[in-house]
Amino acid sequence: MLPCATDLLRWYDRHRRILPWRALPGQKIDPYRVWLSEIMLQQTTVTAVMPYFERFLAAFPDVTALARAPQDRVMALWAGLGYYARARNLHACAQAVAARGGVFPDTVEGLLELPGIGAYTAAAIAAIAFGRPVVPVDGNVERVTSRLFALTDPLPAARKAIAARAVTLNADAQAKARPSDFAQALFDLGAGICTPRSPACVLCPWREACAGHAQGIAATLPRRAPKPVRPVRHGVHFCLVDEAGGLLLVRRPEKGLLGGMMGLPGPHWRDDPWPEAEALSLAPAAPRLQPHWRMVGQVKHVFTHFTLLVDVYAARIAAFPNSMAAAGCVHYPGDAAVALPSLMDKCVKVARKAGIF
Ligand code: SF4
Predict the structure, then answer these.
(1) What is the pLDDT of residues 124-163, one digit of tens each?
(2) How far does the centroid of ligand 1 lie from the alpha carbon of residue 201, in Å?
(3) How far is the CA of 14 from the centre of ligand 1 (A)?
């Protein structure tokens, strides 16, 4: 049995979350805000996104302003949100939309043609910003659906089957009459009531229709196949500073993790640990520069597909040679254009804690 859309919408009208990218009842929906929030929310929580969203909106009030901004500025404002390829795609997408006169496509198909917009994001923007009657299936909606229909096959294999049921949730006329609210109501139900560990079924507008609740298995759904163990990789990064507080940075290659971001110099990350002699043979060098390196600690950083252990070596010299400063690879405190990804920030903090600067 399908749950009743009217019950959910009535609940949403009373309990909807107030979010900076959401239009209040009667307000015009801004597709730019919807798109920006959806890109930021991928793999991240609402709480983590809020300050970034506010900062982006203050710096780039519309899609044309974002399109015109230098990529370094966009990356700097994004730093800390992770998944940096998304920031580059965000910028490319803004440029594509600016080239269309600043107007976003208003269909799922049109949105899918833009950089960085996949099936979920296209459905979310189409439903929320343009009132298209589609159900965007994110983790919240997946969880609610698996419980409503007591779907016990484990993820990730069951993902397609769960999504196929989820897209039927808006089958009734009330849901189709308010697609934007219906999609957001599903998100809010998943985020606030049908929560991962302890769903508050007693408060749920869909309790009567929920098979997971009726069978007493709601909190165990969706089931998940055991995760494969995350492999460990090893890196080395060098933190070289001078008496004036200058820090040697390099731009990482465009392709790969943290692509295009500024970072501490160091060799590629690999499966085997780096013995000290080998690591130091790859330390940054320049004429008349003879830093006395010492290992100041190890940083652990968890990426989606592996855990990275970084040996941090640090040294302080009197002053960087002019050639390095002129090449723009020495950065000083307060340099607004430079923001380090959190892995690099952790490495710098380890060096700082060791008293290097
Ligand atoms: S009744 Fe409980 S398990 Fe079912 S949808 Fe509502 S909160 Fe989730």
Answers:
(1) 999 999 999 999 999 999 999 999 999 999 999 999 999 9
(2) 5
(3) 18
Q: How many Å lie between the centroid of ligand 1 and the Cα of residue 207?
A: 6
| Best CA proximity match to 122, nearest among 62, 114, 143 | 114
Q: What is the pTM of this model?
A: 0.76
Instruction: Please tell me the distance from the alpha carbon of residue 16 to that of residue 33, in angstroms, as a whole number.
Output: 18
Of 142, 210, 215, 223, best ligand 1 pocket probe by most atoms within 8 Å of the beta carbon: 210
- Name the residue ranges covered by the structural domains of the chain: 5-220, 232-353
Pocket test for ligand 1, best of 193, 198, 220 (most atoms within 8 A of CB): 193
Cα–Cα dist 42/121, whole Å: 9
CATH fold of 232-353? Nucleoside Triphosphate Pyrophosphohydrolase (3.90.79)
State the helix-helix crossing angle for 139-148 and 159-166, rounded to 10 degrees.
80
Nearest CA to ligand 1 atom 3: 218
Strand, coil or helix: 306: coil
pLDDT of 338 reads 74
Give the atom of ligand 1 at the shortest distance from the alpha carbon of 3: 5
Return the CA Rg of the chain: 24
Architecture of domain 5-220: Orthogonal Bundle (1.10)
Same fold, 5-220 and 232-353: no
Residue 43 has pLDDT above 90, yes or no: no
Based on the residue annotation, tell me whether 38 is a catalytic residue of this protein: yes
